């Protein structure tokens, strides 16, 4: 057996008189996507542990009567702030039952969010320390594209709607800078509250750690940010074992009466919202890369959950900056017409179309670190007139100019621009109406909160755009309450009905291989927030 603990000088045998390990070592590394892939083949090929799997491990450790404590080792931890906050909740639950020690070779903003659920925070003397707050850096391509003969039409509603500005502009405008700074301030406020609660200090003390110029584990200890400076081998005794070595000793959860009462369906909506089927494009380019949530796939999953007789409530997990206005509305319709209660849980993003789909849910749950809002509309197209001239390309037209208005060969005419602006204003009016009806706000108030502006989860809660702060476990609890189910009623991950894994997986691979300049097909009206926002 490979215990992956090179400094343990004993073999598999436990110390005399000890029949079972007293400590378990739990490794945390990677991004921790919320759920396991719903496609069986994709799940088989995935080597990334999900938050769902981690929660199952933690639950088993909580129930191990022979276990004294858990050492949580943070490796290359790359989870987003909202995910780190969810892990914080898991460790806090574990801390109520066991002694939990977090070992942090790298002290940074994200690892500290997650580790703050543990009772003790320990770092080695040589720990890398980067506790300097959050920041965002976005590269604007406007000048770069113009030098190569490419311009970008960018029509938006309204001033905070910045989805296409990095393609059309040379620099960040004042409105975008204002909303991003407010969002970062919200994140730092949430970080301060999390760390203050964990370390038992006032929030202003925790906020002061961001400006304290901490450069070493010893300095972090003296400031009160961590509880101890020690190396890993000083924390692990001979009765310690990694999780893999004790998995057989951990009893699986037993389905009881709760399973007979009914269950909760979990439908994932992850990635840019498009019409058609969901797919993943591995190409790391703006607009093109990453997962895409197809309206056909999400709607089919919602309908399956609505038709399933054992399902009493639905949780729609949204981690999306939106996308197609049409696709967002089709998904919204399935939520709005559901007779079963629908709870929306927001992940890292639930912005623009990602917020649109949530408006008529019975309850909306957001992380304090969620980026949400962006109630606005945008339309645009690349213009290759000068690029074509430089490279000897000469598009020729036959027929009506209006039929070719979305062609990249020329900019909009004034008449065409008015036509597009009229269309996106109609979509904005529909969007704000949906929000007003679903959130029981006036349209005037929604317009004040909208105009394309983003909000942190805490700010969204303060303004009535979401109902409470939490994570997927919170959303599942609310769904069970709304459906009158026991607190331990099971949850299941929904896939579209009658789709076999092999053909569907092959289709996804074929679709991913197709690269287009505009991933939204013929649709030009977007409720989309450009996801090139990564806090550091």
Automatic annotation (TrEMBL):
A biological process term (GO) from this entry: proteolysis
Domain of life according to the entry: Bacteria
GO function term, MF aspect, one: serine-type peptidase activity
InterPro entries: ClpP/crotonase-like_dom_sf, Peptidase_S49, S49_SppA_67K_type_N, S49_SppA_C
Domain Peptidase S49: 93-236, 337-485
UniProt entry tagged with the keyword Hydrolase: yes
SUPFAM superfamilies named in the record: ClpP/crotonase
Gene3D superfamilies the UniProt entry points to: 2-enoyl-CoA Hydratase, Chain A, domain 1, 6.20.330.10
CDD domains from the UniProt entry: S49_SppA_67K_type, S49_Sppa_N_C
Keywords: Hydrolase, Protease, Serine protease
Record-stated family: Belongs to the peptidase S49 family.
Protein name (database record): Peptidase
Species: Deinococcus xianganensis
